[in-house]
Amino acid sequence: MTETLVIGAMVRTLGAHPSGWRQPGAHRDPARDAEILRHIAREGEDAGLDYLFFGDWLATGPDLEFRDPYLLARIDPLSAVLYLAGVTSRIGLIATVNTTYADPYATARALASLDLLSGGRAGVNLVTGAEPRAAGNHGRGAHADTETRYDRAEEFVEALRRLWDSWDEDAWIADAARGVLIDPDGLHAADLDGAHVRVSGPLNVARPPQGRLPLVHAGTSPRSRRLAATVADLALIAAPTLDDAIATRRTLHEIAVEAGRSPEELRVIAPVLPVVADTDAEAHRIVERLLALVPLAEGHQATRPGFPANRTVAALADAFDVAIDDPLRLSSFDAPVRPAEALRLGERGAVLIDRVRTIAGVGSATGVPLTWRHLVAAHAVPAAFVVGDARAITDHVETWRDEGAADGFNVLSAFQPAQFEAFTRLAVPELRRRGLLAPPPEADADGRPPTLRDRLRVSSRVGA
């Protein structure tokens, strides 16, 4: 495992926590996303992060207000990274494309153009989609099954590679004296005729500076892991615990080896949601406020379209198998959780209570009572917070690296811009001091900054 880590930011302008937008000073207006995107990009670049990552979701609906507000209205990822290419010069820019619905030629063309315009800083996250509403938005009666989607995704990757390889590196001659612009033998057709993807080529964009752009993929299914292990440069994992992450990384490496690929060519990236402050106590107060601001079924909330059914004390009791006639089901949200009631939540309830006490600093030790509001919010909106000062955040990252759990991290911010600033200004210097994050890269002899592949430390021939 490399000593320094790949560290990027997963950009969600309304924040990664459902109640983040309600924090004082938080960005909450998608119509003004251009401002916050510029701020995030400059903050991340100045901090020396490796990339900005933009996910995607091809549908919307009122239910997302309570589940994932950042998905309600968002800038198209390719548009976002192209916009930021003009206001940055060093940081990598990764956009998400859904292979189920996208056209491979148009995608290859747009990404090659982005790579040229950004000086080799483009990457692409390929997803296959899991939102049934997206099918209707693309003129389809139903969402394709898993096998079909991944069969198409594999052919989509091959199409991208062939199109990006349309031009040899020395095909563009531009000899004005002889009147020779190109070597025609250096221009190649794609000629892919698959079951799901057909494309002729060549691509009418010059060869991207990186040749083949870095590929990213995430997922937990066997097909998803195979795609990540065999063709991706970055495999994004969702591992709730350290042991889960270690096992997932090991599995991905095993699949890569079986496919004839060196595991060193694959960077396994874990998510991290740090809540950072100058002190642990201050960070705990931020989490406590995030929990307090999660909309629960009180007042008018329960009548809103799409409001989740799990945001009541009774729903929490159901989840932990509390007797149907137990009076704790009638507890008000702001009532303290008494010891006898905590016992009736069982072992799983004890785990939740311990977790809330750890991340929010509530309980007898701090004088802030643990309430049913805290428990219902934490159970209904699970978030893998890492909470504390710069040292606490860095300890987490260092442990995961040393235990072989990840080669890097995607940093999410509970709300923007304050929590992203807290990470870049407090945690990043400590990460760099411990040698976990490489110093900001320097330009080469010709003044060109490193490409995204350079920053990820992956060969341009990965998966060739």
How far is it from the N-terminal to the C-terminal residue, by CA? 22 Å
Strand fraction equals: 5-15%
Question: What are the low-pLDDT stretches, counting only 5+ consecutive residues below 50?
Answer: none
The radius of gyration computed from the alpha-carbon positions, rounded to a whole number of angstroms, is: 24 Å
Could you give the order of strands across the largest sheet?
A: 1-2-3-4-9-10-11-13
Could you describe the largest sheet, including whether it forms a barrel? 8 strands, parallel, barrel
Structural class estimated from helices and strands = alpha/beta
Shape verdict: globular
Q: Please provide the count of β strands.
A: 13
Walk me through what this model shows.
The model has no long low-confidence stretch (mean pLDDT 94). This protein has 16 helices and 13 strands. Strands 1-2-3-4-9-10-11-13 form an eight-stranded parallel β-barrel, surrounded by eight helices. Strands 5-6 form a two-stranded antiparallel sheet. Helix 7 links the parallel strand 9 (215-218) and strand 10. It has helices at 33-47, 64-67, 77-85, 104-118, 132-137, 146-164, 222-231, 242-258, 280-292, 313-319, 339-344, 346-360, 372-380, 390-402, 418-433, 452-456, and strands spanning 6-10, 51-54, 92-98, 122-127, 172-175, 180-182, 192-193, 198-199, 215-218, 234-236, 267-276, 385-388, 408-411. By secondary structure, the chain is an alpha/beta fold. Helix 4 (104-118) packs across helix 6. The protein is 39% helix and 12% strand. The chain is globular, with a radius of gyration of 24 Å.
